[in-house]
Design a protein that fits this description.
about 60% helix
């Protein structure tokens, strides 16, 4: 369920919510990375800042979920790849609305506890890692309490990444431990409510419908001739690209984002 074989066009079509979130994150990061006036405003207005939350700027419990370190590319890359890794299966199983609820709820909980642990902190924080650990937490809940939703191989991946990810969060410096830990706890906690009437992930649901070509034997006329693609990406190349994304996402998780 974590290994992708879709083309990028099909990925966007099958998983629009994940695609939109990644798109928003990348656009906002680019605005900040390029030091545009809008980017500077977005950073100053949206970065997580506990002392500002204490002064009533409560939107800062939400906005950091969509912002990433403007001083480098690794933060946005790893978080985007991780969302691409874990998000699609959950989006299909939960549906768009439930997926958004889980993503925002766990990300906000991670930021709330970041605030509660040190309300007067002057150190800014940002990133989607609390929400991403929330998705991991939900998958962890499914692994043990809704085992029919996750195959044994995927369960192993979830358990190993969750354990190593949390350990690395406490070992590595400069990591928002509260966001990671409480984001994951929030994902587990929301599991009993959000997984009602959920069906297992199935790659077959995303199979494109096969068009029937109607031909006139005399003229060889194909009414769908203009819909045919002149160029298709070799499936082996597509698989290699998705494996690269998978490996980068794992590296990001193990490095604590």
């Amino acid at each position: 369920m974590f290994f992708r074989n879709e083309s990028f066009k099909d990925f966007i079509r099958f998983y629009p919510t994940v695609s939109i979130i990644v798109g928003i994150n990348v656009i906002l990061w680019l605005l900040m990375f390029l030091s545009t006036s809008l980017g500077v405003f977005v950073y100053e207005w949206g970065v997580g800042w506990n002392i500002a939350v204490s002064r009533g700027q409560y939107w800062r419990l939400v906005t950091p979920i969509f912002l990433h370190d403007p001083d480098g590319i690794s933060h946005i890359l790893f978080n985007s790849f991780s969302l691409i890794l874990f998000g699609p299966a959950l989006e299909q199983m939960l549906g768009k609305i439930k997926f958004i609820i889980v993503f925002l709820f766990t990300g906000i909980i991670g930021n709330v506890f970041t605030y509660l642990i040190d309300m007067e902190s002057l150190v800014p924080h940002l990133g989607a890692s609390g929400a991403l650990y929330g998705l991991l937490g939900l998958l962890l809940y499914m692994s043990y309490f809704k085992s029919h939703l996750i195959d044994p191989g995927s369960k192993q991946i979830v358990v190993v990444i969750s354990i190593v990810g949390i350990l690395m969060s406490f070992i590595q410096p400069g990591i928002n431990k509260a966001a990671h830990l409480f984001g994951m706890i929030a994902g587990v906690a929301i599991g009993p409510v959000i997984t009602n009437n959920v069906t297992p992930f199935s790659p077959w649901r995303n199979q494109p419908r096969v068009r029937r070509v109607v031909r006139n034997d005399d003229l060889g006329y194909d009414p769908n001739r203009w819909d045919k693609k002149r160029f298709r990406v070799n499936r082996n190349i597509s698989s290699i690209i998705w494996w690269i994304i998978f490996i980068l996402a794992i590296l990001g998780i193990l490095s604590g984002f």
